[in-house]
Amino acid sequence: MTVDFYKYHALGNDYIILDPNKTALSLTAEIIRLLCHRHFGIGSDGILYGPFFQENGIHLRILNPDGSEAEKSGNGIRMFARYLFDTGYLKDSSFDLFTPGGKVSVEILDARASLIKVNMGAATFNSTAIPVAGPAREVIAEPLTVLDRAYAITCLSVGNPHCVIPLPNISRELAEQLGPVIENHPLFPNRINLQLLKVLDRSTIQIEIWERGAGYTLASGSSSCAAASAAYRLGLIDRNVTVIMPGGTLHIAITAAGDIYMTGPVTAVYQGTLSETLLSRS
Ligand SMILES: N[C@@H](CCC[C@H](N)C(=O)O)C(=O)O
């Protein structure tokens, strides 16, 4: 069986795209882990599996490198839109896409589909929706002690779950220390993505990210939406913000109705064919 794949990145957050219309590969957790492995496989922060054509439109599945499935991925949605454009699936520059975390609206902003804007929907801080254990409440600046230090966490779902911690100083090292503990904390029954947030001014924030099921990443679209939404809810920023990440910047705009618009680049990296030997060994 020949398995062709595509590789894209968005600000250094890299994904493999596997198209079920072009390959019959069955994506077990073991195969997902192998393909995403940076030494034994192709290497990536996840797999975008689609398009699946259903009556209501185009559907996408998002798979984390540990074999788990995510409800949404902001960078993933932009990369997948670019793939649909590059491979001739798209007729229009605007379309809706369905993810397990909800419908998003995509707008391709340039002729080469290298800049893409997405309406990611609205954020909820409701603990039941995120989910966060304990009584139903909005999780805003709640105390949580991690590795003997007290933090104020704000949690929300933008389709997938996020925990945002505002701090005066952030670093990759701190994200890598806190990330695994918070991701797997009993407070979060579905685990959680973590953003360390530094507010630079009312229209600029900086984040370090630990992604659920993926670990430390250079950028994340849903994390940018979550960090901006949390910062806005905490009164720290205005509605339009530039999010600076180690891999580059995204623009996030939160409308009066609550919709979160994310605008940012996508880069095509390469196309390839998997070795049959690789697959027969897994
Ligand atoms: N990189 C993504 C987020 C991917 C999903 C995440 N790891 C999760 O499990 O929710 C993005 O750009 O949003």
Could you describe the 3D structure shown?
Homodimer. InterPro entries: DAP_epimerase_DapF. This is Diaminopimelate epimerase. It is a single chain. With 282 residues, this protein is α+β, with helices and mostly antiparallel strands. It has two domains: 3-114 and 266-280, Diaminopimelate Epimerase, Chain A, domain 1 (Roll), CATH 3.10.310; 122-262, Diaminopimelate Epimerase, Chain A, domain 1 (Roll), CATH 3.10.310. The protein contains five helices and 18 strands. It has helices at residues 29-36, 74-86, 172-183, 221-233, 276-281; strands at residues 4-10, 13-18, 47-54, 57-63, 69-70, 94-99, 102-108, 115-122, 142-146, 149-157, 161-166, 193-201, 204-211, 215-217, 240-245, 248-254, 259-265, 267-273. It has an 18-stranded mixed sheet that branches. β1 (4-10) and β2 form a beta hairpin. It binds ligand LBFN2T5F. Ligand LBFN2T5F is lined by residues 13, 45-46, 62, 64, 70, 73-76, 160, 193, 211-214, 220-223.
